[in-house]
Amino acid sequence: MDEHRLHGHSIENLPLLSESAAVAVAHEVGASAADQGAPLHEVLDLVEQAYGGSPRHQVVRAASLAWSERVTEHAHGITCEDELTTLASPHHLRSRLGEIHREADMAGVRVADTHVLVGVKLVAGPGASSLERALHALEVAEVLREVFPGEETIARINERCFVVLVRRERADAMTLALVRLLVQRTSAGVPSPRLWVEELPGDYEDSVRVVAELST
After folding, report:
1. Tens digits of per-residue pLDDT, 13-33?
2. What backbone torsions phi and psi does residue 119 show, to the nearest 5 degrees?
3. Rounded to whole angstroms, how far apart are CA atoms 137 and 53?
4. pLDDT of residue 95
5. Percent of the residues in the chain that have a pLDDT greater than 90, as a whole number
6. Is residue 117 a contact partner of residue 198, using CB atoms and an 8 Å limit?
7. Is 144:157 a contact under the CB 8 Å cutoff?
8. CB pairs under 8 A, 24+ apart, for 45-48?
9. What distance lies between CA 111 and its chain's CA centroid?
10. DSSP letters of 39-71?
11. Is 206 helix (H, G, I), strand (E, B) or coil?
């Protein structure tokens, strides 16, 4: 692997970083190595060399997990896009959650202080056909794109549920009221969708579990 520097940090400088910063860099190194086709042992050798033969467990774990996750993605052709709406897929949402958790760790802040999830769940009317449900989902997807046109991650996590990962200040009362108004306009003849704000826990795995629970 030729790329020994990511986000301003070289692998050789890992021992100089705080544990959270070193874990974040190791994660990026592992994922980048997998993208380049480098074997895992080469990544671990570089990390081990950086620490003079005694690397931190959490750093090794971060590099290994990132490498294996990225290899699995390539092997299974996991998509980052929902086929119907072209919004982000649940997989891409989980990746973005990982990014903001690592950014928060490096900045020494809580994820809950920087980001939240805005959820929209459709309520199918009695006797609604699959075509009617699909058309309603497309309308809601367009509403969310209009309200959140920036860096927000808008995902469709199952047939009825949408989630927007936004910075906390973008989930203000005025924005939520606009989302509610526009989404209700798409609901002619069917019950209005449910809209809510979901707080993010401090741990990445817990955030992933929150998304998994929303998709059930």
Report:
1. 788 888 888 888 888 888 888
2. -105, 145
3. 53
4. 87
5. 32
6. yes
7. no
8. 46/1, 46/4, 46/11, 47/11, 47/14
9. 12
10. -HHHHHHHHHHHTTT---HHHHHHHHHHHHHHH
11. helix
**Contact status, residue 167 vs residue 175, Cβ threshold 8 Å:** no
Residue bearing tokens 């606009």: 178
Distance (Å, whole) CA 91 – CA 97? 10
In angstroms, rounded to a whole number, what is the distance separating the alpha carbons of residues 160 and 164? 14
Q: In this structure, what token pair is assigned to residue 182?
A: 């526009």
> Average pLDDT over the chain, rounded to whole?
84
Distances (CA, A) of 22 to 19, 41, 131: 5, 19, 49
Residue with tokens 């449900």: 133
Backbone dihedral angles phi then psi of residue 87, each to the nearest 5 degrees:
-75, 175
Task: Note the pTM of the prediction, 2 decimals.
Answer: 0.66
Q: What pLDDT digit, counting tens, does each position of 115-167 carry?
A: 999 999 988 767 767 777 888 889 999 999 999 998 999 999 988 899 999 99
